[in-house]
Amino acid sequence: MSLPIVTLDQEERWDCQQCGYCCRGSLVALSQEDARRLRDQQWHQLPEYQQTRFLVPHRRAESGYRLAHRRDGTCVFLNEDGLCRIHAKFGLEAKPTICRTFPMQLVPHEKHTVLTYRRACPSAAADHGTQAKDLVSSVKQLVRDQRLKVEASVPPPLKSGEQRDWKTTRLVLQSVGTLLRDERFPPVRRLVHALQFASHLDAAKLRRLNDQQIAELAFTLAELMPEESRPFFDDRKPPKSISKIIFRLLAMSCARLHPLCRHQSTWATRFELARTSWNCLRGSGKIPGLGGAFPAAAIQELEEPLGLKSAGVYVPLSRLIETTSESLLYALAGRSGWPVTDSVRGLALLFPIGMWMLRWQSRQRDPTVDDMLNIVVALDRSQGYEQFSGAQQRFKLSILAFNGELERLVVWYAR
Ligand code: SF4
Q: Could you give the C-alpha distances from 217 to 22, 196, 223, 227, 319, in angstroms and in order?
């Protein structure tokens, strides 16, 4: 039986502006039913698809396939007018389920599923349009029509090897949520508090505690974290060079997920990518413009203080973190099998990456809210993207988590 669908207490809005971003560079995983429907549509009979594969293997998909991309990263079904060929030829119902539902996302919890919007869509990132709660009945209908499985999720481990029941896990997640959405503090402080919470939870000997004691520990830690985190703001030490190298490479990979970044796989582009990675490693030299997404810049420029004059510029980024934490998308979807402590780190890392990209996008001028909206599109896309949710990413985060380096990155790029 499907779980009841609820929406967040925070208002979320979206209307499709037909920008076509979701048809560029997205990994559209197909269900068995999607793959069968596409094969039945006989695309290979059309001359333009006789030499073109429209399905490619994808191990995370139920069918084992996703929609193919053209060499520039656009969906193989995107036409010259920026519209979907499947929709034009067979109608909305004929499209793959993800294409029909994006940016709506269901996050199954224990006894209900949360309907939220993915901020990889610029309209959702800007909170423009229809409230999520007004779409609940049509989403229920879609779930019924498509026979989508919306089943209770398993609680994530609290830390590596520490699995508890839903009741205890929920209380720990609530403590993290309290820290991440504590309006007494600016976003940068909330993230450092949550990161310190994760470090203390990792250090605690949870095996010796029963469920009640763990819940009490989580509550007490959440109370103590603002004071515990103070040294990061008092000394504002820069992160170590190795942390900055790992960080720049991650930030560059994230920027490349922006829909306007073209992915031509030629020798010239591979060479340019290798040169950019080398420059990121040594922390100097140029980074090229990425399509219409980011201008060319010098890496050193991205280390300069931003001195943000308007707090409004932060809003799309803090909305991403707030809605992702309230829906528990960061811990229950995308980072499958990750413990809560690592998921908190994965979420917190979005903040310094976003601030680094803001320097890049708005170089030599004042940053605007539109710059940040554009950045949130790439940041949210990274959540659940294979490259950012696998074992390698967890390993990199564990290096950054050592000795508070992740906290230092958050504080350093917020300046
Ligand atoms: S990214 Fe959002 S606004 Fe743009 S086409 Fe897709 S759903 Fe519509």
A: 42, 14, 10, 16, 28
